[in-house]
Every structure is written in C-alpha cells, then in structure tokens.
Amino acid sequence: MALLNVSVVSADHEVWSGEARQIVAKTLIGEIGILAGHEPVLAILDVGEVRITLEDGKVVRARAEDGFLSVEHDMVTVVARAAELVHADSSTH
Question: Per the database record, which ranges form the ATP synthase F1 complex delta/epsilon subunit N-terminal domain (predicted)?
C-alpha cells in the first residue's frame, strides 16, 4: 500500500512528521480525507482536529488553527499558526 509523507508544523516548530496511510483534516468547507494518489489540493483549515492514520492503524491527533493543508505527489503539509499534538492512540481504528 502506498503511503503519504506527512508534516504538521506550527509557526515556531514541527509538531509531527512521518509516513501515514490517511489524513483527515477540518477545512472551512468540511472535513477532507487524503489517501495516497490524491490529486494536488490546497485547502484552508478551520479550527479543529487533524487525524493521521499510520500504516499500522494507530491514530495520531493534532489540533490546528489558522492555516492550510497542501497535497502534492503524496506529500501532505499542514501549516498552522497554532498546532499541537493532542495524543497518539495505541489502538487500531
């Protein structure tokens, strides 16, 4: 299965980076889900959760506000004025 290279950054530091099979983020027009092979997209983030599903099914959650999400060539970048890791879930989803 193809994976995404994901980076979540805030204004002053990297919050999380790594490989994932899926990312879901809240945008101004609703949630967006990204899988490998997704068309290029640029979306404005709404205040909310970014869920990153790892290859093993574990979920990393971050809170982000005032930023954007960019997808190109299986590279996903979430850039936010404020972002923080909420928690990494050890269970599968």
Answer: 4-83
